[in-house]
Amino acid sequence: MDIQKSKQLPKILIITTGGTITMTPDSTGGVVPTLTGNDLVRSVPDIAKYCECEVISFVSKPGASLNWVDLLGLAKLLNEKLADDSIHGAIVVQGTDTIEETAFIFDLLIQSDKPLVVTGAMRSAMMLSADGPANLLAAVIIASSNMQSQGTLVALNNEFHAARYVQKSHTGHLHAFSSPACGPLGCVLEDKICQFVKIERKSPLAMPKNEIASVGIIKAALADDDRLLKNIPALGYQGIVIEAMGAGHLPAHYAPYISEFSNKFPVVLASRVPSGPIFTHSYNFAGSEMDSIRRGAIPSGLLGSVKSRLLLTILLSLNYSPEQIKTEFHERTEY
Length: 335
Description:
- The chain has helices at residues 37-42, 68-82, 99-109, 132-143, 227-231, 255-262, 289-294, 305-317, 322-333, and strands spanning 11-18, 23-25, 31-33, 52-61, 89-93, 116-119, 152-156, 159-162, 167-168, 177-178, 186-189, 192-195, 215-219, 239-244, 267-271, 298-299.
- By secondary structure, it is α/β, with parallel strands linked by helices.
- It has two domains: 11-195, L-asparaginase, N-terminal domain (Rossmann fold); 215-333, Rossmann fold (3-Layer(aba) Sandwich).
- One of its GO terms (molecular function) is asparaginase activity.
């Protein structure tokens, strides 16, 4: 579908994948994905003031059901479309459950520096004060502007965030997304962009062409035993992320497992705390961050466990060596 108002308007690619923004009630009263990309664009006539649209309904799924086939297919499509000189920028519309992860994957894999915005909605299309139309219009305003070389952005509730730092921080509020490390990069007010912060985008990685690596996440908890740890080697993971307490601390009985695992596959040390980095040289008890790093764990910097898992998955799928993986984590997660 093309909305044409003026040849001088930028052309924006809008790709929809489903999510709450596309959901309407079924016979049970629960909501399911039903609306297409064209349906969404038609519901926001003001889009025509800012751009011409090329709309693609890629899949129709809840965000929680997106998989690597979907995501790599989306990344390939975005790379192809954004290489077209006639396309000014792109928007991906999806479920909010996994926006922080999907946006981070795009930030790693999209080669173009053209504006790329990911958006969705916290309220389904038929709910009172549904936020989807406003979020889509804000994403259009951002993608139609001169927002090049800022990496993938996430836009909801009139704010936009860097994919590297954004996280879903509430299950139901409209202001569900935050960036504890730096706050939002800016907002859309009176149909204009007000930007507070600019961050440098890291260089993109190559698109994986091999089978996608399998990486697991383990979350440490108070008085946890080692039943899960004992079974990790038999599960076939090619890498793991351990979600530690505080600044990178684990129960003392984790220590020998860190040594064992690090000799077999990469082990990344992240924190279960929503904000703040993994420390590297403050604590030195058994299970501390210094102890785990000395045993071979790779500190995740400011990246949480889910984004650390995605970065490690892509690096392993690109056949990076252990030393290359350590270097990439250091350069991409430093603070």
